[in-house]
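Margin note from the TA: students keep mixing up input and output lines. Inputs are the sequences; the output is the structure of the whole complex. Example:
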Amino acid sequence: MDEITGKWYLETVFPDLAIMLRVQEVLYSGRTKYQAIEVVESEVFGRSLVLDGKTQSTEKDEHIYHESLVHPAMLMHPNPRTVFIGGGGEGGTLREALAHRSVERVTMLDLDEEVVDLCRHYLPQHHQGSFDDPRLELLHQDARAYLEECDQTFDVMIMDLVDPLEGGTAYLLYTEEYYRIAKSKLNPGGVLVTQSGPSGLLALEECFTTIHNTLKGVFKHAVPWQVHVPAFHIPWGFNLATDAQLEAPSDIDAAASQRLNKALRFYDTETHAAMFNLPRYMRESIAEENRVNRDDSPVFMV
Amino acid sequence: MDEITGKWYLETVFPDLAIMLRVQEVLYSGRTKYQAIEVVESEVFGRSLVLDGKTQSTEKDEHIYHESLVHPAMLMHPNPRTVFIGGGGEGGTLREALAHRSVERVTMLDLDEEVVDLCRHYLPQHHQGSFDDPRLELLHQDARAYLEECDQTFDVMIMDLVDPLEGGTAYLLYTEEYYRIAKSKLNPGGVLVTQSGPSGLLALEECFTTIHNTLKGVFKHAVPWQVHVPAFHIPWGFNLATDAQLEAPSDIDAAASQRLNKALRFYDTETHAAMFNLPRYMRESIAEENRVNRDDSPVFMV
Amino acid sequence: MDEITGKWYLETVFPDLAIMLRVQEVLYSGRTKYQAIEVVESEVFGRSLVLDGKTQSTEKDEHIYHESLVHPAMLMHPNPRTVFIGGGGEGGTLREALAHRSVERVTMLDLDEEVVDLCRHYLPQHHQGSFDDPRLELLHQDARAYLEECDQTFDVMIMDLVDPLEGGTAYLLYTEEYYRIAKSKLNPGGVLVTQSGPSGLLALEECFTTIHNTLKGVFKHAVPWQVHVPAFHIPWGFNLATDAQLEAPSDIDAAASQRLNKALRFYDTETHAAMFNLPRYMRESIAEENRVNRDDSPVFMV
Amino acid sequence: MDEITGKWYLETVFPDLAIMLRVQEVLYSGRTKYQAIEVVESEVFGRSLVLDGKTQSTEKDEHIYHESLVHPAMLMHPNPRTVFIGGGGEGGTLREALAHRSVERVTMLDLDEEVVDLCRHYLPQHHQGSFDDPRLELLHQDARAYLEECDQTFDVMIMDLVDPLEGGTAYLLYTEEYYRIAKSKLNPGGVLVTQSGPSGLLALEECFTTIHNTLKGVFKHAVPWQVHVPAFHIPWGFNLATDAQLEAPSDIDAAASQRLNKALRFYDTETHAAMFNLPRYMRESIAEENRVNRDDSPVFMV
């Protein structure tokens, strides 16, 4: 059996460029009511969750993604007690949020119950039992519809969604209208953070920059950062937004060890500096961006 | 999800040329004591059995391979009552042999019990229950060692093996020494037939031609033929050998409908003519071949 | 440098199945007025001509295709003196037609002058100088428009076209209307032959069967055959049609050596038998086909 | 022509993971005395230089690589007048070094004259005419042998080499013995900088960490950093080493605009912070590394 023969997962990263990943097993492959879902296992990444052909997270590097999404916002907030999670079916975001001792309640909305059930079964290293935490309220309905109706408010809201693809399930959770609704459910001093898609040089960065620009129009402050998640192949962007005057702790290591009930694997003071100092081209792209995602004119990821 | 993204099975057909097959499911993937085995399902081929990275047979076209292997020899023999099958784990060769009303006993040796068990489970369209036929004696030991010891003899011996790869399980079942043993267990008027590997223009034809030449040195008559099995991508060769003066029925359709308990799907009079009239380049390659597969100097498929 | 790294040509053969061919050089890549054209060189096939992403012919096996297209019709005709070629830009069909000593004039129409010029430059092993033969009249205009206007007639008409793809340049040369025009330019006893696309089990055979059925409605006799051309990966079909009562010579070898000024490499008596005895499934598909290609309702190759 | 069909460059990034890049043209493909060289053009990356199957730099992002390699060392040095470049055949490193107004002489050693000539011809956007600068002395001999013999000394030495692959041309330019030779040719206050291979989470980071550890044993100070170069798919590492007490300018933008004769595209104050703050896992890998590259026991990149 030579080096080519065998089972591969091919994934287009952007037009004219695809990744070939040799897989050991396809643990699950099917369609839920909302999307195609695959769980594949590879020597490179361990178990990967793939939704509609896009790798969402993998066993070997999901901690980079999830720590980068959750902890900057959680540690910037002085005392997060109530957390809202939109999406996040693998349970990694939930796991990281629950690690904060201050957290009393997490309300997590993932539209797709089947995805959550499959993740609970196939991705134990992702959730590590966090779905059983009594502080969790897990609901399977549209996050936006829920927020419009709910009378709860939150200290931190974490949007861990699939990318804003045309025809996808999530693009209405990246718009100005959505962010206004979300903001109305934030407690004073609250923070919203969202995964924001690729932030690289060559393609697709419009997702990252328009989300930033949209947040900036709704909140007083919006802060972008990026990180290299190996399974995504291109740098990945995040944005947080708040009306409060918040700063990251100058000593993140100290803050983390004081406020979390576990040691972090990726995020620390020096890593924070690497993440929040964007390369010049991203700062320039952000500065030049003037589009705003609106319900009737969203900027889809191509 | 675009046209590239997704699960693929890649298979090198010969150096510098590989096939990309989009798969719907990987039904099984593992290693037995002897070889790697995968059962993949695709829109193109249905369920495929893959051993050590080589597609062995598929739901959509296995009837072409199995009818081409079994019936020329069975119909050339005037009254086959006892059949020996070497290999053939999917059960397709067995199914075709048992369709001959004259058959009273089939002794099938497939070294790899796990492969047979997995085929019984995953490939019901291949065997169609033939493993339950009371005429079958199924053994899991080396065909050559068995024949050396056994005191049974056979009218037709069908070798349905993996290719003679270096380091593989089967190359000692393609040698002059093996054919002498097998011949000693053939009844008078008996026929031996073997799958013989690729028979195409561009590569690998040495397998086909050396098997033919080896058989010709052991038996009075050796007859080559080939057929296009879509899943193999290159024409596939077979050889039968006998000391008897045998002829194919001039009306294969009539012979088949008289002697089989089912209708054939592929093999008939006109198809026989297509198979047994080799293209010129194959006749030339056969004429030029002077190597003989011997235990200590086999011609491996590269 | 491992077994994957390097330059490859990927070609979808049919949905969900593609070929990966390692290439040594891309000798030419561009667009003519009518189509994309590439000349790639590989260890497997030597130089290949690719039009609109479909391999048309390769150095290593073009003789199989061109001999199979040209000589059955030419040898069936008792004395072909005038030949019409539609398409055939590589010059291989021309080369084979000119090898018949009886031929006094070949009128070749290939719409795409750039393709012909590039083939003359890059594919010398294909044409072998045949474009310089004084018996050739080479024109670059639409074959159908030309035939409608011309006052010449022909003994043999050879259609060596790209497949009838929607939006392509050729599908109006596969229709009933076209065949009526062509027939009107055939001399008494004349023969028309056309390449007819894939003729395999699994896909695309509608091209072959509808061309056959269309010819059968226009001519008294239509004869199908197929051959395995390695570069096409699936069996390839041809059809000839005539109003005359013609038979292939019973001894093709003798006829060829008498009537041609060179030895053939592929086509001979036994190969003829392999080609004209179709496998059962193709005979069944042909028998079941009732569609006719018409200008306003062609059956496109998918 | 569908999304798969066409010309691709496949490149294994690490075991079980490869990149598929659709190419528009293969501009050059051949072998020099020392290595295989290809220049391919793609929509994604523009023109790419590939040596022995490894992408070295591309038109769209070479400025990231070359600015990251050259300017940290050049700006850390207070007044670099003489520069040594080992490798760097594309001319991008040369271009960046010559942009420093203080530079009076650059001695560039690239073993492979053919590579340099091909780059001059095919990659004008890389070198931008810098090979014609009168300050350049360009030699085609082994950098190590040259340094052992030469009586010149340098303020900055820049090693822009292919990775230390077994059997490759460069691994003896990454060893302790080599660094001692190089150090002996550095002026007081001088700096040596070297590209250092992948610096990612999942594989191959041993190259980066052993180079760092080896430099640390030879020089008083060694400083690692990394950057995301899109064409490399995984983060890329660099190291500089010096015996002097040097600091990066606190305002890199001011220093660059004062000392360079052109504006930089990538490197600036904030980007510097992103590059020199390594993610935690890299700091941990560096801290744990205790191997030293020696001539007789180098750590090859796998």
